[in-house]
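Example 3.2
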Amino acid sequence: MAGHRIHILSAGTWGEMGNQLAARALASVVEQAGHDIVGCGPIEEIAPLFATIGARIRALTFEAAGPQDRARRYLSLMNELAAEVFTPGFELTGGNPVLAPTIEAVAEAIGASGADVVIGTKGAITRIAVAAARKLDRPIAVVNHLTNHGLLRLPIHRATTAHAHMVQIEEARQEVMAHCDCGPERVFVLGAITAAENLAAMLTGGRGEAGGPAGRGATMKPVQLVILSNRGGPPFLEIASLLAASPLAARADVVFIDAADPAAVDAFNALAARHRLGWRGFGRLSQAEYLAELARLDFAQVPLLVSKPGPNTVMEALRIGVPCLLLDSGLPMEAWVLDYVRDKGFGSGADHPAALVSELSAIVAGERIPDWRDRIDALRRTLFRPELSVAAAAAAISSAHRIVHSAEVALASQ
């Protein structure tokens, strides 16, 4: 059978780098399944409403006094959006005055791409896609690709009208069935798929072989950190400041990345210069440049990605082989990620910057890294199985396409 024409809609400001990396990784898997990608980009380029909401999310993240205040502000915003924007059942009723321009714009984009299957990478996007597809004069299947099942705690992301759902891990499958009122036949476990799958050219030979230093620690300082501050706010700059003033500074190389806040990058570089450290700060990096920075860590004695507990970010690090040290964001949909990292044994975390730097000192002084590396190797063998990801994606798309063409399904017949 000929492949389908797939349009992937991701979020550019709701999750920033992580969600876009997830969309690109998914596009690669879908192409391997024999389908054509006719569109893959952030919905903000089509619908300014999402950019406006993304700006509000970013503002509350930066302005919050701490994790508890951030959680309170975020939940307040999500409740407002559920009541006034992403109202119950809007996808079946044609929307509401607030959403109407967005639905029309997305319908126009889908129509122009000629897609017969649309995949949303967040529940709210998937719901918009369902409403948009219903405005067109041809059957279009809609698939919900859920990389963070913690989002199901928020009603706006419960895409109950999607024809199929794709998730990364079995725990997420159970959550979808519980929150989206669907049976197991509509939920497909892809395993973890990451943009790092395409990083072979940067990882020639694997750890300690060609493509990196001659053995771990041979030509670099023992502690190698990438601090990913995207949408994390001032606490990540505070972590860098505390580290620069600590005894660990002389033993550590640090890369600081913040695509959303040039002032934070400037402040980090000024901090490094003031302490005469060869640390590097970057703004927006290409996907390949970011993944190359993570890949470089794999040759260090103590490699760590320091970030908020974003599931896509953590999975990229896990795929490359880098343990994680996570700063609790307070965001409800990310709470499970820190628990997952601790339970699976490939990292740690803390709830404020000083505690995180203290935890880093304990990690450097202890013997946890070798055990974490062993756990990572075992997890990678079970989580990252590209051939199964391709088969599961193909099955999800075929199932959704079958459902949307079936007169027995209420959504398709309305």
